Amino acid sequence: VPMVAPGNVQVHVINSTLAKVHWDPVPLKTVRGHLQGYKVYYWKVQSLSRRSRRHVEKKILTFRGNKTFGMLPGLEPYSSYKLNVRVVNGKGEGPASPDKVFNTPEGVPSSPSFLKITNPTLDSLTLEWGSPTHPNGVLTSYTLKFQPINNTHELGPLVEIRIPANESSLILKNLNYSTRYKFYFNAQTSVGSGNQITEEAVTIMDE
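Structure tokens predicted for NRCAM protein (207 residues):
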């Protein structure tokens, strides 16, 4: 098997899900056989938004021939990763380069995990929601938009409310009685807004 590990491993993080890794080629005489390529082992150490460690699943990408760089796609935003590089000949892999640590930046969050509308009264509705399963960063706020829908399914004026990220419920007051409303709800990080979820609910007709 090859005798030495690739040197001078460098990681260039391109965006929240993509990084580029560079390495110096090993001297050909240390390959001790036919140079087949280089393997990059990489794995997520932890999410930076939830400090929970989990089962580490190592991923491997093979770059054929005498390439000295490769792309790592499909990374998770706002996470800490480690990687190392090994040279491969027909017999197997050489030793691993020292582990290199890199962090991906924040991305936009997934949609809120749920939106429930309860306690209808003549002029109010209560909204409850769950935070995104994948925050992909630090949540900065939620945005709620809503509008009335009349009997011919025409949409009325759209109202928009910003809600602090640590809230999980809201009572909407001063609504019209016996009116159907449509709600659009999403979460934000400093990077931008995630996908929205929509719900509809009706205020009651009379007490």
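The radius of gyration is 26 Å.
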